[in-house]
Amino acid sequence: MTKSVGILNVTGYAGAELARLLHVHPGVRLAGVTGRSAAGKRLPDIFPHLFAIDLPITETLDTAGLDVVFSALPHGAAAEQLVPLIDAGVPVIDVSADFRLKRVEEYEAAYKVTHPAPHLLARAVFGLPELHRDEIAASKLIAVPGCHSTGVILALAPLFARGLISPRVIADTKTGLSGAGRALGLAVHFSEADENVAPYGLDGHRHRPEMTQELGLLAEAPAPEITFVPHYTPMTRGILSTCYAELRAGVTLDRAGIMALYRDFYADAPFVHVSDTPPSTKHVAGTNYCVVHPSINLETGQIVVASALDNLGKGAAGAMVQCMNLMFGLPETTGLQSLGLFP
Amino acid sequence: MTKSVGILNVTGYAGAELARLLHVHPGVRLAGVTGRSAAGKRLPDIFPHLFAIDLPITETLDTAGLDVVFSALPHGAAAEQLVPLIDAGVPVIDVSADFRLKRVEEYEAAYKVTHPAPHLLARAVFGLPELHRDEIAASKLIAVPGCHSTGVILALAPLFARGLISPRVIADTKTGLSGAGRALGLAVHFSEADENVAPYGLDGHRHRPEMTQELGLLAEAPAPEITFVPHYTPMTRGILSTCYAELRAGVTLDRAGIMALYRDFYADAPFVHVSDTPPSTKHVAGTNYCVVHPSINLETGQIVVASALDNLGKGAAGAMVQCMNLMFGLPETTGLQSLGLFP
Amino acid sequence: MTKSVGILNVTGYAGAELARLLHVHPGVRLAGVTGRSAAGKRLPDIFPHLFAIDLPITETLDTAGLDVVFSALPHGAAAEQLVPLIDAGVPVIDVSADFRLKRVEEYEAAYKVTHPAPHLLARAVFGLPELHRDEIAASKLIAVPGCHSTGVILALAPLFARGLISPRVIADTKTGLSGAGRALGLAVHFSEADENVAPYGLDGHRHRPEMTQELGLLAEAPAPEITFVPHYTPMTRGILSTCYAELRAGVTLDRAGIMALYRDFYADAPFVHVSDTPPSTKHVAGTNYCVVHPSINLETGQIVVASALDNLGKGAAGAMVQCMNLMFGLPETTGLQSLGLFP
Amino acid sequence: MTKSVGILNVTGYAGAELARLLHVHPGVRLAGVTGRSAAGKRLPDIFPHLFAIDLPITETLDTAGLDVVFSALPHGAAAEQLVPLIDAGVPVIDVSADFRLKRVEEYEAAYKVTHPAPHLLARAVFGLPELHRDEIAASKLIAVPGCHSTGVILALAPLFARGLISPRVIADTKTGLSGAGRALGLAVHFSEADENVAPYGLDGHRHRPEMTQELGLLAEAPAPEITFVPHYTPMTRGILSTCYAELRAGVTLDRAGIMALYRDFYADAPFVHVSDTPPSTKHVAGTNYCVVHPSINLETGQIVVASALDNLGKGAAGAMVQCMNLMFGLPETTGLQSLGLFP
């Protein structure tokens, strides 16, 4: 039976991508969408590519009859608007950072705000089905991870889970610019971003605590020490994460071994494709897939794992739909089987 | 009931896009794919983004049991390989130029080859459902138009059909580089094509006779005289066609009038979106939609109609699926409802 | 002897490019630069690529001792701030629209402001050396044309000057996004502009009156009737202008003839390169050159002239330096001989 | 007095960029250029952007009267063609790998060819003026480094030279596609490379031995162990190198300290700009500058040094001119002072 869903703050890229995915999902009906500044307009006025989803944008969402509420609100605003819904028992899938971290101190240090509902953190499930499938299916509050986090966690999880590497790792990510959202700024001004690669976040990036938390939950070893350096690259969608790790003393592993380890670890994960060849962001554009390629440097023995995903797909809206499928008891891949828009 | 289909020459971009579209089409099963140089490999070896379509690439196609054969062979090769199938009664949807033109002299002048089967031209239907829906549904040989042709014909058809303009028109198109195919060359070498806009085909372009033929069939006036100038632009997918026409003496038309004319003309065309605002190629990336915006220059009275489509979608593989739907009696939009991959 | 120059409003792209060009010009010293919002900072704080031009940005310019003042102020502000300088006899080269048009009504209609000093319009020289070399050399008030205007005027001037074409012409331009300046907006947001081609200005564009004025001055025929449609393309620098014209009744001209006409017309213009082959914007990136390729469509006899330039080079800052060279009696090409940054 | 120079193999990107730079160099005259396949044509036939350098492309170079010969031949061919010139006492500046490595075994292992003149390796100077200025000035055989090597060596040299870090380092580079040259291939096919980031060379890259050699010469510690992972990014020019190192046990260094170290180390290097802010490839497009930004991760203490350069500028042709200036006793910066083509 068709489920009814709503989107809070459809006017950003995650919200728009979610509407696009839901439009072709066979099991749901998009009942309503909100957006502060755009209230009173229709969805195609804001996003002409959604001309076939002719819904009014309202200021608030009528949640009566909704089977789930998706929130694409920014952090802070998300928690504030979601708490009443959560209290009322409405299932919520949130793409902000508000419910991702278990320790409120980490959240408040990273986001410089006071959390309005720290009591909910224990109840929230981290929306990465590859690590938390059963909890997601049973939860009514899901916090979908940040886009960099998904790429880095999926790249490193098997190694941490098996206790094979030292805690000190490097995550060098290369991101498309849609990750910075629709807000205006020189960093996403075409003339400045085009033909440009540059590192940013050298003073610390908010996605790092998520990586540390999730990889730390896997490991028996001490907490991961992640040096995370994201880079802007001149493309719209995609994150390529190159992760570097050192085998723990006494561990031996070769290229065939690491490949077997990853294939085994992700055997039941329909959206993680463990690949023999280096991943390309373009191969997953518009999809919910993450391609992971584990390798070992022949000259130094350094572990090098690269992953590719679409930051708005598996890194945001795709993951939201995947979680919804689990929550509704639908096949996990429903409505998400599109392959990469290549070339 | 699921239909079985095959693709001849899956190794180009049109073939790969077709496989991608068929993968999520609810009514068909892709039974086989061919490719000369790649025979013996598997589809994901050639196109890693199609990792989930793990078919062998064969040299020839076993057409027994196939409900339709799609051909993405280049012109010349297409006719040669298709003639036996056509003679055997296999339904064929071809994306090459071999069966588009009604007059064999025009074909041979444009393509510098002798047509191997000119007797089939009368039987072939031009695969533009917006002009030939019923014939497509009844035909077993469909020739899908060139990507530039689709954009220009859809932009100008209402005006020619109603006899409102002089025959002398200009079609200035801006194309993404996937239109040039997967073959290598300096024109599609990244370092030369990136950050570059340049006209080409100033000595004549092979898509022009299609435009003249199809617009000429509509008009009561003399044959269209089209000056067609395509331009390379630094993007992968998309064609933006800007067409210029002059009203015939005595005809008056204002902006509201031309908009009403277009809305009426395309009232039954689910994939033509007549828009109040100028079209953007990015709004239709990955889709089978064509956005058309008719306008009149306020200073000169010149008619200016702009259209946008995805050259691999509505300009190739999408149109093939649309024709297939009609041929199979399925709803025209089956499997083609994805909206633009924006941003 | 080294000349001293200053730049008003260095904080936009035209100002920054001007500073970049003057940095390697052998005959001038950049003495001062202004910028409203950035006053108090240093030039490299605003533009890190200018790290070697370590000048303070001031609120006002000390014009004592300056041999010329360049203004990259926006229209309106330019005239206001320049009038006192002009009255004081300071030579001025302005890249805004304020002094380009001879008829104040046209200016005020296009820009929706009252011109503060219409009496200066007669004295100003249109800064296109290819048409006004001697006047520029003798003038103290030069109004450099808009970037689209330069491309279109240079493409069509020989035909209008010789009276060979009908007044009704089409100028379809494809522009890099730096033409829209450094101001923020969705049209220049990377994620929306990347992989996108779209027409704009369908309700009229402010550069059109310049084209009409300058081409009209050349012609003996009635005033040009220009349908001008600019398009955004996903690149930073460059304008490709494709211009369409019809030969006047009775005129005959073939491809060799039109090529000879252009070569003759631009024989003394060091920055116009009349080319046998279609122009590419990338061939002139970073330069003051304009490549022009005149042609005749073989099928329709339509005149098609394409030109390519760098909108910040010959379309703005390069032209300012070229005018300065003439004003100072230097060789016209001084400091401007860099060839295109290709690839 | 003007020097005469020639270019062997002008038909690649390094050769063309060299011609472009020499065109505006005040101290040299480009006397001749060669190119195998293009012999008999003129330079602008192959590179239209060099229309003002109207030289014939010949099969061989008349070296009589030449003050230096630049070679942009590929490895193998370079050594073969240069040996007679070197033996004849002609000064040579080579951009291939043939004379970069001191140990012939390393060369032969990396390039899978037998070196035709291993006796010359001891005489050759590694063309990185920042490390070998005096030797370059005194040499007649200079081997300009690979583009990745320059970025990585300049990023790490101060740390190795001062013995501050462990030998085990990571160099994660992001390169523009012109680094792959003008040869055709799917990796540089626009439709496949556009909107794509992907690692390559995971089985080893030929530039690595250069890095190891040069950084090893600096260090007193054991030989560097470099894990080098290059990545394709969708831009034409530029390399952003992000290098990760660990302080040796007992060494303490903070952000101010590392900045001071770098400023001191590069105090006499006019083309290395040590920057307070993260570097951007676009800031150095078209230049001979390398921007270096040393930093320390606040959370993990990991050393992170990022550098940006233009692979065809400081990474190839610019470095060749810089070496030539030193060889000729000209100011090192002659003809190389252009700042970045930004935006």
Short description:
The structure is a homotetramer of 343-residue chains. By secondary structure, the first copy, chain A, is of the alpha/beta class.
Blueprint of the fold:
4 copies of one chain form a homotetramer.
Chain A: E1 3-8, H1 13-23, E2 28-34, H2 43-46, E3 57-58, E4 68-71, H3 77-87, E5 92-94, H4 104-111, E6 125-126, H5 129-138, E7 141-143, H6 147-161, E8 168-175, H7 190-193, E9 198-199, H8 208-218, E10 225-232, E11 239-245, H9 255-265, E12 272-274, E13 290-296, E14 303-309, H10 313-328
Helix pairs in contact in A: 1-10, 5-10, 6-8
Structural write-up:
The structure is a homotetramer of 343-residue chains. Chain A has 343 residues and is α/β, with parallel strands linked by helices. The first copy, chain A, has two domains: 3-145 and 315-328, 3-Layer(aba) Sandwich (Rossmann fold); 148-311, Dihydrodipicolinate Reductase, domain 2 (2-Layer Sandwich). In chain A, 29% of the residues lie in helices and 20% in strands. The first copy, chain A, has ten helices and 14 strands. Chain A has helices spanning 13-23, 43-46, 77-87, 104-111, 129-138, 147-161, 190-193, 208-218, 255-265, 313-328; strands at 3-8, 28-34, 57-58, 68-71, 92-94, 125-126, 141-143, 168-175, 198-199, 225-232, 239-245, 272-274, 290-296, 303-309. In chain A, the strands form two sheets. A seven-stranded parallel sheet of chain A has the order 3-2-1-4-5-7-6, with helices on both faces. In chain A, strand 2 (28-34), helix 2 and strand 3 form a beta-alpha-beta unit. In chain A, helix 1 packs across helix 10 (313-328), helix 5 packs parallel to helix 10 and helix 6 packs parallel to helix 8. The radius of gyration of chain A is 19 Å and the shape is globular. The two termini of chain A are 36 Å apart. The model of chain A has no long low-confidence stretch (mean pLDDT 97). Chains in contact: A-B, A-C, A-D, B-C, B-D, C-D. The interface between B and D is medium-sized, with 18 and 18 residues.
